[in-house]
């Protein structure tokens, strides 16, 4: 039965056997019929486009299904269709295992497309060209109502159910005997149960088919057109901007935004009270998480896992590898100290496929390894931002911890790591643990009142479309949900969105840069490292280390706590969690202000500090002599053999086409579909790996790691003999 503010109601039609539903099972989700029929129909929509709203279906609470009428098709013609959600493929519904459904337009060229959200079944009914259908979009009760039978199934049962196919008995009339009612000429009746008094009553409904009115219990297709229709440009009393944004504008005037989750002041770090009530999509942590299985090194395969719910629904997890399956690091001569000293080449804007091609060179040249930028599923857009498409810092806007990033898929990452390890080069990865993207997919039209009321719509992600993850900042007052990372509203601070390390280690990664560590409390950072230690068997791998982005100089005002915390105090916290000094030594700090401003936190021992000249936030024109000095005589050095044992050089790309896009083909203006008039910067695709390329030639990528003078300065620091450019394929370079 349907709860309507102190009444439980069911509408029964004994003529057509229909039911009333308590709510739209896909509430807040855009349900669209897509297929080959749209260009040929009266809608004139785009063929097979999941974001084509002209194929939008609406939920009928009387028939408990989604429906849409398609007119003016070619008669007696075959078409195909499916149902897509929120403008994306993935999770779409079809026929016979997910294939396209087929229908024939018949003699009228008009059909009713039907999707049953409970069974997932798609059906098609031929209708006359004059018939329309439009369900009533809102029957939910006001939030002030109280339902004393909440969370209980309430059914109206009786002899009329011989036609409806069920039988039950709970509360009756008199001393519990059966209640009696009679139907009207329309055969439709409203059954009412008042939960507080436990009184049952009924009311015959005089629905008249063909009278042009939308009546309670309406079952006549020709009258559906008078019911509220989402998409008819009329905001009915039962519609809001949340249930039908096409018809009803946002309730806030002007360019106002909701502020229910604003922080009270700068001291508030917890979630806003009441935010947990907005958990719609994400299961709570540890719910029914009782089943597990242990694996040992005897298992050498790739693990495929499927989770089955109590309703028999299934979730297939990404394939899992184990750290003992990773290819052994090829042993090389040199002062590598089991992976705790060496030079690392940072490949900014290089795809996994391009980096894989460099593994042999990096190993032969003597590098400790290569550093990749974020590899998790990331934000992508079809709308420009700051006049460009898919900016570089979108890579730092996670959607999930799935390893399908902009630079390549999980499979490509796995191949890259194994190939590099076979040549002696380790792989390090940028990890974003502090936050998720703040731009999710919801019913609201996002807008910024501080930028001329610029608006933006829903976004997508870097993952192949068939396995993209949902993410939301939804509702009247936005809250954050990232189901693929099991992160819900209470997992975030107020007014801002707030882990996958072991998965990357299991693929063979050797360490991480922790992005935005300055925004994470030292206690939490230590606790994260403790969890990694436990999951790695109680001890961090010998060649493992992380470096934390905590800038204690020019950005000291942005860090979680005072700079002094990241010296002796932080070391003591780490010792409490990690116990051994050798384990603490693997938690290093990034001196992001080297070489201009040194020693902002001199209490951090130098063997726990990493240095570099250029980074992707502040790239400068290449200056070879500074990179050579990085290894021969870095600024402030007192013991070049042991100070700052991890040093980075940057290979990136020139900003010939603006400073925000990446030349990977995903910052092209051609990818824009919304507000494209503001997209003024287009970055063409430029292949990063060129086997004969010199370090600084051209206007595409920089390749500092191929500079033979830098290489030999690094090799001398690592106690390796000089190497010729000819032996590395760079003999023609100057």
From TrEMBL:
TM helices/strands, residue ranges: none
Catalytic activity: Endohydrolysis of (1->4)-alpha-D-glucosidic linkages in polysaccharides containing three or more (1->4)-alpha-linked D-glucose units
EC number: 3.2.1.1
Gene3D superfamilies per record: Glycosidases, Immunoglobulins
Keywords linked to the UniProt accession: Carbohydrate metabolism, Chloride, Glycosidase, Hydrolase, Signal
Cofactor annotation: Ca(2+); chloride
Listed SMART domains: Aamy
Signal peptide boundaries: 1-20
Coiled-coil ranges (or none): none
Chain ranges of the Glycosyl hydrolase family 13 catalytic domain: 342-680
Broad class of enzyme this protein falls into: hydrolase
Biological-process GO terms, alphabetical: carbohydrate metabolic process
MF-aspect GO terms: alpha-amylase activity; cation binding
Family recorded in the similarity comment: Belongs to the glycosyl hydrolase 13 family.
Protein name as it appears in the record: alpha-amylase
Lineage of the organism: Eukaryota, Metazoa, Spiralia, Gnathifera, Rotifera
